[in-house]
Design a protein that fits this description.
Blueprint (H helix, E strand, L loop, with lengths): L1 H24 L2 H10 L12 E10 L2 E8 L2 E8 L2 E9 L8
Antiparallel strand pairs: 1-2, 2-3, 3-4
Length: 98
Protein backbone atom coordinates (compact mmCIF):
# COMPACT_ATOMS: atom_id res chain seq x y z
CA UNK A 1 0.00 0.00 0.00
CA UNK A 2 2.81 2.40 0.83
CA UNK A 3 4.57 1.58 -2.42
CA UNK A 4 1.50 2.62 -4.41
CA UNK A 5 1.30 5.93 -2.50
CA UNK A 6 5.01 6.63 -3.13
CA UNK A 7 4.69 5.84 -6.83
CA UNK A 8 1.64 8.12 -7.07
CA UNK A 9 3.53 10.94 -5.34
CA UNK A 10 6.48 10.61 -7.72
CA UNK A 11 4.11 10.54 -10.71
CA UNK A 12 2.36 13.68 -9.44
CA UNK A 13 5.67 15.52 -9.04
CA UNK A 14 6.82 14.46 -12.52
CA UNK A 15 3.46 15.56 -13.95
CA UNK A 16 3.81 18.99 -12.33
CA UNK A 17 7.36 19.33 -13.66
CA UNK A 18 6.19 18.42 -17.15
CA UNK A 19 3.35 20.96 -16.96
CA UNK A 20 5.75 23.69 -15.77
CA UNK A 21 8.13 22.90 -18.65
CA UNK A 22 5.31 23.15 -21.20
CA UNK A 23 4.16 26.45 -19.68
CA UNK A 24 7.68 27.88 -19.69
CA UNK A 25 8.17 26.96 -23.36
CA UNK A 26 4.91 28.71 -24.33
CA UNK A 27 6.01 32.04 -22.85
CA UNK A 28 6.15 31.66 -19.11
CA UNK A 29 3.80 32.47 -16.27
CA UNK A 30 3.23 36.11 -17.19
CA UNK A 31 2.07 35.12 -20.66
CA UNK A 32 -0.23 32.50 -19.18
CA UNK A 33 -1.74 35.06 -16.81
CA UNK A 34 -2.15 37.56 -19.66
CA UNK A 35 -3.84 34.91 -21.81
CA UNK A 36 -6.17 34.07 -18.95
CA UNK A 37 -7.14 37.75 -18.68
CA UNK A 38 -7.62 38.01 -22.44
CA UNK A 39 -4.53 40.14 -23.11
CA UNK A 40 -2.69 38.86 -26.17
CA UNK A 41 0.76 40.10 -27.18
CA UNK A 42 1.01 42.10 -30.39
CA UNK A 43 3.42 41.12 -33.12
CA UNK A 44 4.67 44.70 -33.57
CA UNK A 45 7.74 45.53 -31.48
CA UNK A 46 7.58 48.83 -29.61
CA UNK A 47 9.67 51.67 -30.96
CA UNK A 48 12.76 52.33 -28.89
CA UNK A 49 12.99 55.66 -27.08
CA UNK A 50 16.80 55.65 -27.08
CA UNK A 51 18.75 54.98 -30.27
CA UNK A 52 22.49 55.21 -30.90
CA UNK A 53 22.82 56.74 -34.35
CA UNK A 54 26.59 57.09 -34.66
CA UNK A 55 29.85 57.00 -32.70
CA UNK A 56 33.16 58.65 -33.53
CA UNK A 57 36.28 57.73 -31.55
CA UNK A 58 38.57 60.73 -31.10
CA UNK A 59 41.19 59.13 -28.84
CA UNK A 60 41.19 55.84 -26.93
CA UNK A 61 39.47 57.61 -24.03
CA UNK A 62 37.42 60.27 -25.86
CA UNK A 63 34.50 59.81 -28.24
CA UNK A 64 31.45 61.58 -29.64
CA UNK A 65 28.02 59.93 -29.75
CA UNK A 66 25.03 60.95 -31.83
CA UNK A 67 21.97 59.76 -29.92
CA UNK A 68 18.22 60.08 -30.51
CA UNK A 69 16.23 60.26 -27.27
CA UNK A 70 12.51 60.47 -27.93
CA UNK A 71 12.09 63.46 -30.24
CA UNK A 72 15.48 65.00 -29.47
CA UNK A 73 18.83 64.34 -31.12
CA UNK A 74 21.86 64.81 -28.87
CA UNK A 75 25.62 65.01 -29.44
CA UNK A 76 27.30 63.60 -26.34
CA UNK A 77 31.04 63.66 -25.58
CA UNK A 78 32.43 60.91 -23.37
CA UNK A 79 35.76 61.24 -21.56
CA UNK A 80 37.50 59.77 -18.50
CA UNK A 81 35.81 62.34 -16.25
CA UNK A 82 32.29 61.46 -17.42
CA UNK A 83 30.13 62.76 -20.26
CA UNK A 84 28.78 66.07 -21.54
CA UNK A 85 25.95 67.08 -23.84
CA UNK A 86 27.52 69.24 -26.55
CA UNK A 87 24.48 69.92 -28.75
CA UNK A 88 20.77 69.22 -28.82
CA UNK A 89 18.27 69.60 -31.64
CA UNK A 90 14.62 68.67 -32.16
CA UNK A 91 13.81 65.68 -34.32
CA UNK A 92 13.33 66.65 -37.98
CA UNK A 93 12.07 63.27 -39.23
CA UNK A 94 8.84 63.20 -41.26
CA UNK A 95 5.84 62.24 -39.15
CA UNK A 96 7.58 63.07 -35.86
CA UNK A 97 5.36 64.97 -33.47
CA UNK A 98 6.87 67.92 -31.68
Amino acid sequence: MELARDVAAVAAVLGLLFAMLKLARRGGFVSAIDRARGVWPTSKAPEKDLQKLERVTLTPQHSLHLVRFGTRTLVIATHPGGSSVLAESPDNRKGASA
